[in-house]
Amino acid sequence: MSKLQFDVISIFPEYLAPLSLSLVGKAQENELIDIAITDLRDFAQGAHKSVDDTPYGGGAGMVMSAEPWANAIESVAQKSTGHHELIMLTPAGKRFDQSMAYELAQKEHLIFACGRYEGIDYRITEHYQGVENFTVREISIGDYVLNGGEVAALVILEAIIRLIPGVIGNPASLEEESHSIRGEENENLVEYPSYTKPASWRGHEVPPVLLSGNHAEIARWRSAQSEARTRQLRE
User: Fold this and answer.
1) Is 101 within 8 Å of 148 (Cβ atoms)?
2) What would the pLDDT profile of 143-164 be if each residue is shown by its tens digit?
3) E strands of the chain, at which residues?
4) How far is the C-alpha of 211 from the C-alpha of 89, rounded, in Å?
């Protein structure tokens, strides 16, 4: 499988600086992935490099113009001759979850469009839905509004990249994380609580079963804790 290519388009490329840190940064150093950041203003026209205008129909705020976005998207699309997943980051999109992260980790080329203001002219979505070798996905990280798509891009990128082979030191740990654990009815469960040394801290004790060395009992305890915590935290 070829190396996954990520392209992020934003008017604030410096916002994406955390992508050079921690495991994501190491994954780039080890050439497991490629991440490129593109400044949308490089594709804007005029002395002021304007990328937005007033909305048709009236209303507050500004809407990001279609032409700079099309030029930027088509520029980064040239990096790959395969299929492009164009991810429009919007609070109106489909809710991002772990199963979507696994799906996107199998793709060839992901392009993240980080909108601002009142969003991107919807004709960008409409246009690329009809372009060969493009799939358009409108994705949200939750039912709330941010100032722009950069934060959402960081969230989604980290969730995807940690699933790529070689990024996480112990791949088995991915199977025991929240939303990767499956209950009896195949529902997603949150992870069981974790503890480390010392066994006693400020009057709080580590559950005795974890000190027992009985791996079957520990597995049963962890399974029960995952189910109980899911009910408690997700009701």
Assistant:
1) no
2) 999 999 999 999 999 999 999 9
3) 4-10, 33-39, 52-53, 63-64, 84-95, 109-113, 134-140, 181-182, 188-189, 200-201, 204-205
4) 45
